[in-house]
Design goal:
- This protein has 121 residues and is an alpha/beta fold.
- It contains 5 helices and 6 strands.
- It has a 6-stranded mixed β-sheet with strand order 1-2-3-4-5-6, sandwiched between helices.
- The longest helix has 16 residues.
- The radius of gyration is 13 Å and the shape is globular.
């Protein structure tokens, strides 16, 4: 579907979007912090288009995430939920999983070990 990348710092964060069985799967690579929050937000939910009803964020390639990433996921969750859809996180590395659990995001947004499990629900 499309690739999104922070232009002034190529390689720092990239997001690839593909539709799988009607679900938007966003595969993210790199570090999620304040500088790239808009890139991640745009990849998860377009500001110009209606929210995709179902989104899986594949975080296997994410090596670092701070509170900026948490805020992006909460905003994306809110937007897709308001549209009657859902957001799921898949494949996060242990350091990212610890952060998600520490702030309680895993109770708001379902976290799955793999994209396949997230798609299955």
């Amino acid at each position: 579907m499309s690739d999104i990348q922070k232009e002034d710092r190529p390689g720092r964060l990239s997001a690839h979007q593909v539709i799988v069985d009607g679900v938007l799967v966003v595969t993210v690579h790199g570090e999620i912090d304040h500088d790239v929050r808009d890139v991640l937000g745009s990849a998860l939910v377009s500001r110009d288009a209606p929210a995709p009803p179902r989104v899986v964020a594949d975080l296997r390639g994410v090596t670092f995430m701070d509170s900026s990433g948490i805020n992006v996921f909460v905003a994306a969750h809110r937007r897709v939920s308001e549209a009657g859809g859902w957001l799921r996180i898949a494949g996060a590395q242990e350091s990212v999983v610890r952060l998600l659990r520490m702030v309680g995001i895993d109770t708001l947004i379902p976290c799955h070990p793999s994209v396949e499990q997230a798609l299955a629900g």
